[in-house]
Amino acid sequence: MSSTTALRTLLRTPASLRLLLLQTPRSTYHSYDHAEQPVYREAERTILSSALAHVPIHGFTQEALTLGAKDAGYLDISSNLFPKGTFDLVKYHLVSQRLGLKDRIQFPDENFGVGRKVRNLILERLRANVDTGIVTRWQEALAIMSLAENIPASLRELGALADEMWFLAGDTAVDASWYTKRASLSGIYAAAEIYQTTDQSTEYRDTEQFLDRRLEELRTVGGAVSGTLGWAGFQAGAMVNLLRSKGVMI
Predict the structure, then answer these.
(1) What is the CATH number of domain 38-224?
(2) All structural domains of the chain with their residue ranges
(3) Residue 197: CB partners within 8 Å, gap ≥ 6?
(4) Which of 35, 131, 140, 185 lies at 20 to 30 Å from 15 by C-alpha?
């Protein structure tokens, strides 16, 4: 695979999320052999879940959080409970949908290939944005996630989603391809999610077609980002866009 072809594919990653992909995460072993620890305390979960119901109308705002607290029977929201404000609301949606993914999708038989499973998992996760009614507000969430103080946590959650999808698709290997596979899937999912926020087609069919094109491109260039490029490819893509933003033609 040529570096030019790989870089062109990488540059399709949305500019608003490319920064999230520039930092190299630490490889972890994803396993359900150990019991999951509760991510949120009961009061947090109740308020945030209730607040999400107000997002379609009020957006990812403090108002939605306040209304969620009232619905849950709390008169006030302690700053200690949600120190990051609206980002805590965004992150709750990300975490809860990631953890619920394994319960929302079943594959028909063992002959269902890994590639088809990954495609279905991405579509199911995108469908969750529609079912919860937040898809029309998701650009607000992306803006909140892109704030400097929220980038590390946003990056970790995007990586965790990619890890979850590969695991549910049957890929549990932890080897030299760990980074490149997750980098590729993270970029494709991020691109499809942003495309979905502007999709006006019936049942988001254009988003599905967009996803299929990105997956086909990935398959064509070798199934994953080349190990010789890896995360450096994402860094090179960001540098190209930075130069372009400064008026440098390349």
Answers:
(1) 1.10.357.10
(2) 38-224
(3) 135, 136, 138, 139, 142
(4) 131
